[in-house]
């Protein structure tokens, strides 16, 4: 059954956590299903791409690519997915009506407590064509925000960006889960991130 909660479309309630109330266009895919289909998307993704929710769920995200899409950038995403590493590329994509747009997309793996790959998170930002170095501005802003974090918060952010959950981060750093939650919450506040997905995107933009 498909549910719509907080402006998110999915039939997988667990995926809700990842993109909950994310103002940035976001999708979650399930790499354990054939062809890594999208299992959740938010309203911002529907608005950006102009596809209906029923046209998005169950499909691989490659439908955004088209004749002008740079094959080497698609290769970079494919490689990131294969190697389970986060990637950020600025790729030419197309909306449903054929309108091309420059998409600064971040694709990042998400692992469960047993270190098994469970999801990929994708977030898409339309770059304004003609604006001066929009991605550079985003990167600089992200790096500036990251600089305000304490050493511990920075460590936690690095692990969140690597797709780790609180439990694993606690284990890796030899701290309690409660302490990790606290650091994570403070880092989120300082970064002005509204969800884990936002936080991951910022970290990738900052070059972490
Ligand atoms: C979560 C996720 C989000 C993705 N978002 C985009 C996207 O916004 N634009 C795009 O061109 N490709 C995106 N991709 C990449 C395609 O889904 C696909 O992996 C890529 O086209 C390479 O595979 P192919 O050679 O089989 O098409 C995304 C992939 C994943 C896993």
From TrEMBL:
<keyword id="KW-0157">Chromophore</keyword>
<feature type="domain" description="PAC">
    <location>
        <begin position="85"/>
        <end position="139"/>
    </location>
</feature>
<dbReference type="InterPro" id="IPR000014">
    <property type="entry name" value="PAS"/>
</dbReference>
<dbReference type="GO" id="GO:0016301">
    <property type="term" value="F:kinase activity"/>
</dbReference>
<dbReference type="InterPro" id="IPR000792">
    <property type="entry name" value="Tscrpt_reg_LuxR_C"/>
</dbReference>
<keyword id="KW-0808">Transferase</keyword>
<keyword id="KW-0288">FMN</keyword>
<dbReference type="InterPro" id="IPR000700">
    <property type="entry name" value="PAS-assoc_C"/>
</dbReference>
<protein>
    <submittedName>
        <fullName>Sensor histidine kinase</fullName>
    </submittedName>
</protein>
<dbReference type="Pfam" id="PF13426">
    <property type="entry name" value="PAS_9"/>
</dbReference>
<dbReference type="GO" id="GO:0006355">
    <property type="term" value="P:regulation of DNA-templated transcription"/>
</dbReference>
<feature type="domain" description="HTH luxR-type">
    <location>
        <begin position="142"/>
        <end position="207"/>
    </location>
</feature>
<keyword id="KW-0285">Flavoprotein</keyword>
<keyword id="KW-0418">Kinase</keyword>
<dbReference type="Pfam" id="PF00196">
    <property type="entry name" value="GerE"/>
</dbReference>
<dbReference type="InterPro" id="IPR035965">
    <property type="entry name" value="PAS-like_dom_sf"/>
</dbReference>
<dbReference type="InterPro" id="IPR016032">
    <property type="entry name" value="Sig_transdc_resp-reg_C-effctor"/>
</dbReference>
<dbReference type="InterPro" id="IPR036388">
    <property type="entry name" value="WH-like_DNA-bd_sf"/>
</dbReference>
<dbReference type="GO" id="GO:0003677">
    <property type="term" value="F:DNA binding"/>
</dbReference>
């Amino acid at each position: 059954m498909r549910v719509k909660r907080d402006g998110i479309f999915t039939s997988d309630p667990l995926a809700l956590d990842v993109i909950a109330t994310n103002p940035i266009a976001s999708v979650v895919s399930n790499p354990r299903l054939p062809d890594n289909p999208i299992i959740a998307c938010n309203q911002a993704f529907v608005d950006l791409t102009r596809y209906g929710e029923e046209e998005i769920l169950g499909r691989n995200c490659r439908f955004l690519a088209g004749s002008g899409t740079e094959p080497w950038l698609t290769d970079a995403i494919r490689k990131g997915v294969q190697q389970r590493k986060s990637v950020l590329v600025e790729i030419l994509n197309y909306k449903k009506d054929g309108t091309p747009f420059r998409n600064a997309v971040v694709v990042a793996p998400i692992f469960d407590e047993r270190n098994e790959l469970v999801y990929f998170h994708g977030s898409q930002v339309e770059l304004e064509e003609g604006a001066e170095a929009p991605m550079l501005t985003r990167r600089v802003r992200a790096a500036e925000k990251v600089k305000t974090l304490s050493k511990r918060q920075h460590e936690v952010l690095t692990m969140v960006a690597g797709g780790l959950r609180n439990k694993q981060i606690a284990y890796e750093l030899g701290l309690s889960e409660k302490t990790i939650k606290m650091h994570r919450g403070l880092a989120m506040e300082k970064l002005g991130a509204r969800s884990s997905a936002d936080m991951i995107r910022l970290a990738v933009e900052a070059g972490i």
